Every structure is written in C-alpha cells, then in structure tokens.
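Sample intake sheet
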Amino acid sequence: MKQELGQKSPFDQFANEVKTGVDLIKKAFGADGKGIKDVSGGVTVINDAFRAFSPTLEEFGKDLSNIFGDEVGEAIQQAVQLGQAVGDAGSGIAKIVSGDVVGGVMSVVKGIGSVFTMGREAEKRHQQALKEIADARIALQREYNLYCSNKTFYTKKEKNAFGTNELGRATNALWLYRQAIADYKKE
C-alpha cells in the first residue's frame, strides 16, 4: 500500500518514510527512554527517504526556475545538496553512536566533504561574477574614452583666417590616437 501511495505522491511517500524513521529512533531508546540500542537504523531510513525524494525536489526546482529564473532552481538544488550532506553526517554520527565507528566516520567525512565542495563551487561562481563585472567596467571605460576622443576630434576648431588647417587636424588626430593607445595600455 505504501509503495502504491509513493508512486502516486512522492511527498506522501517521503512523509511516511520519515515517520517510519522517527518511530525506529524512538524504539532505539527503549520503552523507558533510557539507553541507546540502535539509532542508526532510523536515521538511515530518514536519510534514504530524503535521497529518494531529492530528484523530485530538484525537478520541482527546475520547474520553478523556468518560471522565476535560474536563481530559484539553483537555490533549491543547493538546499537539496546541503540536505544530503547533513543527512550523510547525521547517519555517520548515528553509526558511531551505535558502534559502527569506521562506517560512521566515513559517512561524516562524506557529509563534511560535500559541504566543502559546495563552498568551493560557490567561490568559483563568485570569482567568475567578479571577473565579468571587471570586464564590463573596462569595456564601458573604453567606450567612454572613445566617445571623449571623438568629441574632442570633431569639436576642435581647425579654422583660421586663411581657411581650414588640414595639417593641424591631422596633428590633432594623431595626438588623440596616441593618447587612446596610451590609455588602453594603462588598463
């Protein structure tokens, strides 16, 4: 019956599996609530339920990003990855408490490693965004410099009492060109 319900509603399947995991954790403490027998089973059931539900959440995030933009989908994907990492670390701690020290340490390291990987990926995206901003600033500065050079070239009067001063115009154009090259090299 639960499998049939899960095929129709992954949300209900997830909720049922989390409830099962919580019940197993409650049983691990015994009827009197003292002593820990095996909490790793319940934590593992919850972690597995989240992992099974993750693709549904990611698909939901993609659908939302189609509507609201990529930032929404990316935020949901990061939340899912963080949830999986926390689940791995929690499973590891539960395994350690239950006596499986090696398996527990491996799960904790996996969870912590996932968090650090997410941090490195976020740092790369941040550095790329900063580079794009710097490149855009330089391009805008170049456009402005070109505008100023053209304005100076076209507005400078090269007429005198004897008519136009072609040599003066040519000299001015060369000076502006040399100045633009020097400004470009400074950047």
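Comment: The two ends are 69 Å apart (CA to CA). The chain is about 85% helix and 0% strand.
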